[in-house]
Amino acid sequence: MGRKSKAKERKTRAVANADVAPQVDPAFDDDKPAVQSNSVEYLNIGLMVLSVVVAAFVPFELFLVSYAVLGPLHYLTEISWLHDRKYFTLRKADWALLMVCGLLITLGTDSVLGEDGIRWLDSIPLGQSSLYQVLSTHYMDVMFFAFGAALVFVVAQQTWLRLLGLAIVAICAMLFHGSGPTSATGIYYKLFGVYMPTLIHVFIFTGAFILAGALKRNSKAGFLSFAVFLACGVVAIWLPNIAGDPLTAAPKVFWRGFQELSLNGLNDILRQPTEALVGINLYTSDIVLRLVRFLAFAYTYHYLNWFSKTSIIGWHSVSPVRLTFIVVAWLASMALYAVSYDLGLRWLFLLSLTHVLLEFPLNFKCFLDIGSELRQRLIPA
């Protein structure tokens, strides 16, 4: 075989491999200059401190502004970036199942459907129940299935192994759901019905990315960044409230849109049973403001962390057409929030949820990278 034939064969093989193998996450790329990486880490430390300081004074306002302004741009740019990297799965079409899961969860969310949507879905019979009842009852199971499916898509290449993995995930979801009103069911509901698309995504996964980058580069600045991140989270929760009485309608808007997350957070993070909250002022109570401060810090820094790593991740390197679409969609999203915050939450729920689900494979890859780096340190070759 001649040189040209061999070169052509190598090129063909490389193209074929690119269709099935995920690309390396640039955030964990060792080829980035250490000075550039350290500068970004120190910038992020500053952003963490800034986020927690602003959250200490105007927690409700910071949360709502970050969610409405930074949030949509983050969703759009991250989905674009993930798309160019084949969502870090082993096959090109894996993302489609995660998208379907996102749609099913959206259709099972009362606050998104509204009364008209609920009546419409409730009018569609499905066995002994209705489509609405099935979707609203099983949306946390769909979230669990999407999470498990992402792991399958990351580690399994063979079709039979993938089908087996998806079947096991589906069976586990049914078992967890059917286990009855026990404490385990409560944990399952809270993990996949409340925290997975919210606090786990913006705080746990963000922390994991920081740690993975520090381990990969063996960066003192990276480890310092991770320590400051954890410290800011602790300070946000436990520092006594220093915010004054709210001067805007932000608390009312916040509680309309994020009541379930907040009540569960008060129960689980600050150990306040629901009955203990009866009669307290949800706008000025110290315990409430400490939780909202933590949420404001976690969400704001989650977004700022993404945008601060533009030069490393390169999410802005897209075609002019796609960039134009992103900017127009972002402006339209902010306009919706400006018209009505409640309307913005409803219409952008699917976009927000989709970016969470499509990131699941990368989340698993991140934890696999952390495990690999820790093994190399604890069990050197």
TrEMBL record:
Q: Which organism is it from?
A: Blastopirellula marina
**Which positions, given as ranges, span the membrane?**
42-58, 64-83, 95-114, 134-156, 163-180, 192-214, 221-239, 287-307, 319-339
Q: What is this protein called?
A: Uncharacterized protein
Q: Does the keyword Kinase apply?
A: no
Record keywords: Membrane, Transmembrane, Transmembrane helix
Domain of life, per UniProt, equals Bacteria
> Would the keyword Transmembrane turn up in this protein's UniProt record?
yes
